[in-house]
Design goal:
Elements: E1 2-6, H1 62-78, H2 116-128, H3 136-143, H4 147-153, H5 166-177, H6 186-202, E2 208-209, H7 210-219, H8 225-234, E3 238-245, E4 257-262, H9 263-282, H10 300-310, E5 314-318, H11 325-336, E6 341-345, H12 348-358, H13 362-365, E7 366-368, H14 369-374, E8 391-394, H15 402-410, E9 417-422, H16 435-442, E10 447-449, H17 456-466, E11 480-484, H18 488-507, E12 514-517, H19 527-538, E13 553-559, E14 562-572, E15 575-580, E16 583-587, H20 589-595, E17 596-598, E18 601-602, H21 604-607, E19 612-619, H22 629-636, E20 639-647, H23 652-659, H24 669-679
Parallel strand pairs: 5-9, 5-10, 6-7, 6-8, 8-9, 11-20, 12-18, 12-19, 19-20
Antiparallel strand pairs: 1-3, 2-4, 3-4, 13-14, 13-17, 14-15, 15-16
Helix pairs in contact: 1-6, 1-7, 2-3, 2-4, 6-8, 9-15, 9-24, 10-11, 11-12, 16-24, 17-22, 18-19, 22-23
Length: 680
């Protein structure tokens, strides 16, 4: 446990850490995720990065953290690594979702209009340096209308574009600069610092230790790594904080750990902490009077949650699938008392299940987080820009990355009640941070832990996994079936057999309601291989619409961290037409290749927030080294009635469940929350 504070460092450019002095709503625009291709020249003809392992930060072991960070970078560059912790959906090159009347896209997601002249100038410079001209559009989006001029002046800026590695940026710079190109160029060091911190963010971190980042720079042949970092701080490129052991007196001479982070994520954590403390400090029970009765609650845990939320502006609630009934009961009780209460889920699948729990008012009170923030669902916003509500219960809270969480909390008005609810055992967000886990660890608000267990053999199995125990369960109705396999080829064969034949015939669940979950996209038993085999069996066709046919199950990724399951309906000049859980979506033709993939098989991160009648979890032998208890728990608990486990890791599975918990992420939110709560 540690206490992190901002360090004020004199700079030549006026850069400084401005904690709690910036507007909470003035978050910087989100740079696009980047991926890499293994080649000697800049290339983008690859699947974007999806599976980087977040590197834990064991105290006093920077070399171990560096090794994990290096592995995360390699996984991102491969694009097909199997990572149980961040098997995130493939980010789209253009994150703008199509306009859908039911759920309009947030304004921030809409693309910037690009004129022809800046694009042409960027194309010319990229072509001159040997880079693909397809980078011109992201270059103008990232660098502005002077992108061509800026790239000519500083070729290493190409490293900020999607799919570019350090060695590729070096080759681009050598071509443009000729003899003037040298490895100790200050511009190169600056670009590599930003690239490493963005790679760390893709692995889940919002900050890195100074020593880890220094070593990573040295591995990228930055000669004066220490000097490069100091210059980055002085120029305001990164923010620096210190980490002092908690409990030490302020004047202790104990060494401190320096943390470095990008302005974007530092501001998001500060903004989120500020917003959460604001809700605690501005809440007055008299402003929205509510005196609920314990007798009205359906369970003791629901009664405890209702009483806690009635008396606090911020409440944390934990529990499994069955515990979702408790925030639903809270919202129902609040609406009965006349409060404007809503409940938000991570996915449309989760929203539907929540609506069923809410009963007659479910369709009005249950929303998705995306729909709530965009204004397409829920109460809408008032004149001050905040949501017009008195109580908001957010389920699936572990799926909120730090930026999305900050945006959500900013939208909740002063005096309202916010309840963040979720299962602490599932995978953390696809984006950086661990907002819900940090809130629980900070202990700045009332916390209610559900005592309602998940029912049946699957619930019993998941509960045991959650505490590190993998024990056999009685499954008289074949609720849980273990299918051992010898290799990846057999795993694919048995998976197809289960989905297409065994589960429909024996369990009675059709193939369209059975979801396959596997650790990663690449490999002989990853989503790509499984989807190819499942399509051939379940919906064969020529793939006449950019590789897709009507009836194909797909996953549409309009932006990093957002995965919408759907089915292909048709295609026309407007693009690929999908049905995403009852919502019609049109994916523009130019986005299909990067934003849509087949979806009979998905990763655990794509599956979190949803449940299916039947799940086939595939654990190939080569996945043993990357699995965690968190991944196994997340995958297995997606099943409602039947779970088949196709596993080739033998005795490694009990060891993973017992000995390999969630991989840590380096974040600052917990400490910032405690500091702000103490000051408040």
């Amino acid at each position: 446990m540690s206490r992190r504070r901002c360090i004020a460092i004199p700079t030549t450019t006026g850069a400084r850490c401005e904690r709690r002095t910036r507007s909470r709503s003035a978050l910087p625009p989100a740079p696009r995720r980047r991926s890499s291709e293994r080649s000697s020249t800049v290339s983008t003809d690859r699947t974007p990065a999806e599976d980087a392992n977040p590197a834990p930060r064991p105290a006093g072991q920077p070399s171990e953290e560096l090794a994990r960070l290096a592995e995360a970078v390699r996984a991102i560059e491969r694009g097909d690594a199997t990572s149980p912790q961040t098997d995130r959906p493939a980010p789209a090159e253009r994150p703008e979702p199509p306009a859908v009347a039911q759920r309009p896209a947030p304004a921030a997601a809409r693309p910037v209009a690009l004129s022809g002249e800046p694009l042409e100038a960027a194309r010319q410079v990229l072509s001159r340096g040997g880079a693909p001209e397809t980078l011109a559009e992201p270059a103008v989006e990232r660098l502005g209308e002077r992108a061509g001029e800026l790239l000519a002046e500083d070729p290493w800026l190409v490293l900020s574009l999607p799919g570019v590695r350090v060695d590729q940026a070096d080759g681009f710079a050598r071509t443009l600069l000729g003899a003037a190109c040298c490895p100790d160029d200050e511009r190169r060091g600056r670009a590599v610092v930003g690239w490493l911190l963005e790679r760390a963010a893709e692995a889940g971190h919002t900050a890195l230790e100074w020593s880890v980042l220094t070593a990573a720079l040295q591995k990228q042949s930055v000669a004066d790594a220490e000097g490069t970092l100091r210059k980055a701080v002085e120029d305001g490129q990164v923010m620096v904080f210190h980490d002092q052991q908690e409990g030490a007196a302020p004047d202790d001479e104990a060494p401190v750990t320096l943390l470095l982070g990008l302005d974007r994520y530092a501001l998001a954590e500060e903004s989120l902490a500020d917003g959460l403390v604001r809700l605690l400090n501005t809440f007055e029970a008299a402003a929205t009077p509510w005196e609920p009765s314990e007798d009205d609650a359906p369970s003791p845990s629901a009664a405890q949650l209702i009483l806690a939320a009635a008396g606090s502006g911020l409440t944390a609630h934990t529990g499994g699938e069955a515990a979702r009934a408790e925030p639903a009961a809270l919202v129902a009780a609040a609406r009965t008392a006349g409060l404007r209460a809503y409940a938000a889920a991570h996915t449309e699948n989760g929203r539907r299940r929540l609506a069923e729990l809410l009963g007659t008012e479910g369709e009005q009170a249950a929303v998705t987080v995306d729909g709530l923030l965009s204004g397409g669902e829920g109460p809408g916003r008032g004149a001050d820009g905040t949501l017009e509500l008195d109580l908001l219960a957010v389920l699936d809270a572990p799926q909120l990355d730090v930026e999305r969480a900050a945006t959500l909390v900013e939208s909740v008005p002063d005096g309202a009640r916010l309840v963040l609810s979720g299962d602490p055992g599932v995978l953390w967000s696809a984006g950086p941070g661990r907002a819900f886990a940090d809130l629980l660890a900070a202990k700045v608000c009332p916390q209610v832990a559900s005592r309602t267990p998940d029912p049946g053999p699957i619930g019993e199995l998941a509960s045991g996994i959650g505490v590190g125990e993998l024990e056999p369960v009685e499954a008289p109705g074949k609720e849980v079936v273990i299918v051992p396999v010898r290799d990846a080829g057999e795993a694919v064969h048995r998976t197809v057999q289960l989905v297409a034949d065994s589960v429909p015939r024996v369990i009675g669940v059709p193939a369209g309601q059975t979801q396959v979950i596997t650790p990663g996209h690449g490999g002989a038993a990853g989503t790509r291989a499984l989807n190819a085999a499942l399509k051939e069996r379940l919906n064969p066709g020529p793939g006449r619409y950019a590789g897709f046919d009507p009836g194909d199950r797909v996953v549409y990724v309009p932006a990093p961290g957002r995965a919408l399951p759907g089915v292909v309906v048709s295609a026309d000049t407007a693009g690929l037409r999908l049905d995403c859980d009852g919502v019609p979506v049109v994916v523009p033709r130019e986005q299909v290749a990067t934003a849509v993939r087949h979806g009979w098989a998905v990763t655990a991160h794509q599956a979190v927030g949803a449940r299916w009648p039947a799940v086939v979890a595939v654990l190939p032998g080569d996945a043993a080294a990357t699995l965690t208890r968190q991944w196994v728990y997340s995958a297995f608990s997606r099943a409602e009635h039947h779970l088949s486990v196709v596993q080739g890791i033998d005795q490694a599975l009990p060891r993973v469940v017992a000995e390999v918990p969630a991989k840590d992420r380096t974040t600052r939110l917990r400490t910032v929350l405690r500091e702000q709560a103490a000051e408040g």
